[in-house]
Amino acid sequence: MILVTGGAGFIGANFVLDWLAEQQEGVVNLDKLTYAGNLETLATLKDVKAHVFVRGDIGDSALVDKLLAEHQPRAVVNFAAESHVDRSIHGPEDFVQTNVVGTFRLLESVRGYWNGLPADRKAAFRFLHVSTDEVYGSLKTGEPAFTEETKYEPNSPYSASKAASDHLVRAWHHTYGLPVLTTNCSNNYGPYHFPEKLIPLMIVNALAGKPLPVYGDGMQVRDWLYVKDHCSAIRRVLEAGRLGETYNVGGWNEKPNIEIVRTVCALLDELKPRADGKPYSEQIAYVVDRPGHDRRYAIDARKLERELGWKPEETFETGIRKTVEWYLANGEWVRNVQSGAYREWVQKHYASSAGKGAA
Ligand code: NAD
Ligand code: TYD
User: Fold this and answer.
1) Domains of the chain by start residue, with CATH
2) What global pTM score does this model have?
């Protein structure tokens, strides 16, 4: 049995679905079900006995202690977090609560449990913390990609809170000997991605005939990895990663945002042309930039390849096509996540960054 936290979110749910499809080992899935948690993503697991879903907070020590004692997991994989940069700018408090205080409490519960294990299970235990490349800050054009040695320079409330959580995880290893592993991954995309993030937002807005809001000049660069490849990297690090080490995860897919948006538009032109025959790119609208917007992220994932033999399976071209096809085939999932809370966010956020004009 493993304990996964945040397993009803985008990456956590993909991880749980893939894990249960590939391994013989059960999953206890602890998720608070914030706006980003979605049980519908896990609907196919409804009758699967190897999946135990528990609604709760990683910061609820009594609950986490009880789950650990009851299920005796051999590993914890921590996905639970507040994850959206724009939301962290509007309201950083939840980010500090979950990403910093929550991770601290989770570490303490896990430390107590781990200390009580018999020697062989204690030695085999792992705590894998899922983090982001955003902790390294922003790169200038031409600067080499982030390695595991790059110093932390987080710039947003989100990345600062994730950096803090990484430091706690590191310290719990250094001070208490907790057997931890940390992964720092680049931007993910793929099925079940909440449509507040760039790629799914562009797909759902395009199909709804709405503007495609590109921040600033659209030339900010992100390094994109298909979510299933992130999940395979986590499984590999969990299996063979060296204790206390961090591993950068990425697919060498640096692209400016405007290129991503144009690629999505071109795929939709091919797969679901607009009724009026015009290209979806006509809906592109440049809007006011994100405050403190990091210009460029890029991940050097050679350590993971060298030490653990991991490589992504998808190229950006194959992954983005699968993603657009998934959204076209899963309109109901999209409609159901576009709840009142979602509409409220879109209204609040994009009303304050009024359009600068169409492309
Ligand atoms: P997400 O926002 O889609 O999902 C987060 C999940 O955590 C949700 O299901 C939510 O309900 C749950 N959660 C939030 N607070 C919780 C709490 N206090 N206790 C228990 N559950 C809680 O995020 P995601 O994109 O799936 O990201 C998962 C992890 O991967 C995060 O730690 C994030 O920092 C990291 N990460 C994300 C990306 C990316 O591109 N999305 C890239 C690198 C790393
Ligand atoms: P996002 O998906 O929020 O991920 P992150 O900020 O964690 O990298 O954004 C990806 C990039 O797309 C980022 O540079 C901000 C930009 N972006 C837009 O241009 N318009 C949007 O509406 C959103 C949500 C993001």
Assistant:
1) 2-358 (3.40.50.720)
2) 0.97
